[in-house]
């Protein structure tokens, strides 16, 4: 479905990105509109797939997940069977917050959140036992300088 977004739609989306838990009244007030048009626009954007699942952001460190690793993976395997096995291995591991297939020298990058380096090693050992990987480089994030899920609307 092709949806054209106007300024009001973008304002609504910015508000939803800022805090999707706001009431409809709060969103309508923030975008200088009334509740019914705002609700109708949100509904249409959901139907079009622009607005997806609503969730909450948890504080990883407050929950004991102090270590964030970016894992660079090179593989010599590029067959469909290997890719499916690799993807399955990633999907069943909740430590993997993000996974991207890349262009360039590195084939994949993972964002892995764990309590500590020992937990990362457990994750790593399990992954390489399940899937053949040519080279793995793990980079520990010392400090998160910026984090957002918001798109620049």
Brief account:
This protein is about 40% helix and about 20% strand. It has about 150 residues and is α+β, with helices and mostly antiparallel strands.
Polypeptide structure, described:
This protein has 153 residues and is α+β, with helices and mostly antiparallel strands. The chain folds into two domains: 41 residues, Arc Repressor Mutant, subunit A; 74 residues, Alpha-Beta Plaits. A four-stranded antiparallel beta sheet has the order 2-3-1-4. Strand 2 and strand 3 form a beta hairpin. Helix 2 packs across helix 3. The longest helix has 14 residues. The two termini are 20 Å apart. 14% of the residues are buried. GO terms for molecular function: sequence-specific DNA binding. InterPro entries: ArsR-like_HTH, AsnC-type_HTH_dom, Dimeric_a/b-barrel, Tscrpt_reg_AsnC-like, Tscrpt_reg_AsnC/Lrp_C, Tscrpt_reg_HTH_AsnC-type_CS, WH-like_DNA-bd_sf, WH_DNA-bd_sf. This is Leucine-responsive regulatory protein.
């Amino acid at each position: 479905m092709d949806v054209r977004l106007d300024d009001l739609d973008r304002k609504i989306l910015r508000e939803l990105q800022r805090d999707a838990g706001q009431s409809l009244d709060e969103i309508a007030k923030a975008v200088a509109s009334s509740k019914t048009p705002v609700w109708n626009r949100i509904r249409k954007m959901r139907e079009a797939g622009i607005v997806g699942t609503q969730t909450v952001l948890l504080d990883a460190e407050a929950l004991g997940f102090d270590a964030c690793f970016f894992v660079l993976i090179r593989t010599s395997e590029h067959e469909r069977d290997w890719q499916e096995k690799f993807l399955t291995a990633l999907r069943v591991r909740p430590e993997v917050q993000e996974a991207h297939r890349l262009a360039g020298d590195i084939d994949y990058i993972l964002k892995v959140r764990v309590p500590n380096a020992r937990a990362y090693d457990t994750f790593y050992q399990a992954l390489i036992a399940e899937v053949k990987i040519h080279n793995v480089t793990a980079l520990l994030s010392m400090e998160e300088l910026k984090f957002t899920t918001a798109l620049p609307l």
